[in-house]
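> forwarded from #structure-qc
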């Protein structure tokens, strides 16, 4: 059976005045119709991995891979036009903060309709009806009212739901969620995760969930990839995250807050030079 996504030895580098900055250094994994978590500190290469898959890396970046394929489609060999056709239609990405992801001068409904009509030849009326159905699917009350609102007129949680609706309205097979709950309070986080969980299970999508929250990933995902300095240092089942073997993963887990027991002095993550080799 062909994997939904194959990433083999992916590398992403950025030329600078002081030399080449290697953001992603030889990342490899396969994804089926499952929830794959990618965790690590800020700067570990999580988001750049997702952006490279989407084709959203800045033009000056140097990208290479032994294989980067969506099904049987080689993402590094197809044209920019073919990549745009895939992006939004078959592969979608939820970015971290709706304040910076949604267009501030377009209503929420217009943005969802624009996404839909870019990829499908349908009338404005049909696109509006599907957009309203999608807003309702992500548990937005009064979708007709929200349809006409601008991003600054809704809360962060509702903005994130609108972003999810826009990314899912075309029925993608692969969804990349880049810290979709980091800007939300705990109760809204749970609601957004419940939406994603239902959509993945009901639609049979593959999900890459990028986060720095180990507890969240261990409870929500099926598998977890741990990244450090642009590399994958450990891969394991999410249910086994507490039994991680790599000292970096163990260090991250040890830094999580604990109610019981004396935590003075607070633990710190002691990095080792060999982890980045």
């Amino acid at each position: 059976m062909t994997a939904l996504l194959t990433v083999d030895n992916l590398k992403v580098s950025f030329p600078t005045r002081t030399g080449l900055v290697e953001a992603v250094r030889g990342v490899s994994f396969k994804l089926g119709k499952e929830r794959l978590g990618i965790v690590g500190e800020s700067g570990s290469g999580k988001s750049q991995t997702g952006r490279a898959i989407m084709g959203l890396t800045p033009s000056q970046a140097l990208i290479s891979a032994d294989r980067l394929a969506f099904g049987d489609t080689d993402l590094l060999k197809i044209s920019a036009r073919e990549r745009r056709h895939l992006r939004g239609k078959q592969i979608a990405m939820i970015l971290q903060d709706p304040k910076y992801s949604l267009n501030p001068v377009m209503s929420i409904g217009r943005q969802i309709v624009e996404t839909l009509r870019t990829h499908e030849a349908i009338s404005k009326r049909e696109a509006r009806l599907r957009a309203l159905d999608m807003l309702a699917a992500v548990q937005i009350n009064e979708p007709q009212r929200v349809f006409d609102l601008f991003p600054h007129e809704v809360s962060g949680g509702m903005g994130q739901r609108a972003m999810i609706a826009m990314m899912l309205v075309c029925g993608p097979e692969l969804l990349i969620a880049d810290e979709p709950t980091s800007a939300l309070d705990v109760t809204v986080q749970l609601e957004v995760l419940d939406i994603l969980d239902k959509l993945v299970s009901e639609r049979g999508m593959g999900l890459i969930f990028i986060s720095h929250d180990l507890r969240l990933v261990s409870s929500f995902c099926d598998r977890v990839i741990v990244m450090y300095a642009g590399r994958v240092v450990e891969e394991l089942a999410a249910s086994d995250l507490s039994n991680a073997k790599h000292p970096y993963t163990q260090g991250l887990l040890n830094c999580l807050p604990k109610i019981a027991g004396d935590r003075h002095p607070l633990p710190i993550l002691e990095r080792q030079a060999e982890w980045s080799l």
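QC bot note: The chain has a mean pLDDT of 89. The two ends are 34 Å apart (CA to CA).
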